[in-house]
Amino acid sequence: MFLVEYCSELAILSFWPNKSGSLSLLDSGPYATFVGVYDGHDGPETSRYINDHLFQHLKRFAAEQNSMSVDVIRKAFQATEEGFLSLIASQWLTKPQMSSVGSCCLVEVICDGTLYVANLGDSWAILGRLVKATGEVLALQLSAEHNAIIESVRQELHSMHPDDPQIVVLKHNGSIVDLYLKNVEFNKEPLYAKFRLQEPFKRPILSADPSISVHELEPHDQFLILASDGLWEHLSNQEAVDIVQNSSHKEQGMDMLSGKSMCIVARLSQHFVQHNEELLWCYTLFSNGTN
């Protein structure tokens, strides 16, 4: 079961550099768009925490730097991870199961014509790009997938943990929290036995450092699809793009895709056609951690 939450505090994100370089939700000034897909596992706590805190951290760091950047996004991920780690540590003796919850996290930020895509886990983002010569809309994958079925990810896990031949049984190599796989002190009693590893690990098994890509948007970039792994298990990148492109309305295409997964379809044309529209809707999706 997946939950969809439209948060009023996330609905509008507008960057307005005043004299102090602060970032605020004003009705004027250059705009930005924030979209997140948070696919939780073993419980809803992590995805809910990300939903409540990641955007706020992003605003804070953007205000400090008076800009949007890869560094701002990376700091927002780190602050979100550290905040939930502290919460879990404080509840370890009474709620040890909290150390086993986690969430994949896919975030898109568009600011001043620049698209940032940050990813941890097996969700990913696809750009639908128009080829003017043929009229086709082709799929361009924007985010790196952290899934252990991919050979490069398996090799990375092996290189990081050469003493653990079973390391690649993990589904992915990145997430927010999953503390029991990042700190050996939380991989013991009173944690449930099914989560405890037989051998102690010497270094974190999962990473909380997202892969971040940056793209300058162009007028022939048509739309962006962000989806959890459920969609990509059933459709190729191009098949998903074709469904959206061939629908009479992009919303119809989104409905067709979202039946298979957590999915967002965002039309990029607004960033080039509607220059005078300062406000842009923004929302997040997150799962409750069950399949």
TrEMBL record:
Residues 19-291 form the PPM-type phosphatase domain. One of its GO terms (molecular function) is protein serine/threonine phosphatase activity. SUPFAM superfamilies: PP2C-like. InterPro entries: PP2C (IPR015655), PPM-type-like_dom_sf (IPR036457), PPM-type_phosphatase-like_dom (IPR001932). It comes from the Eukaryota. This is PPM-type phosphatase domain-containing protein. It comes from Capsicum baccatum.
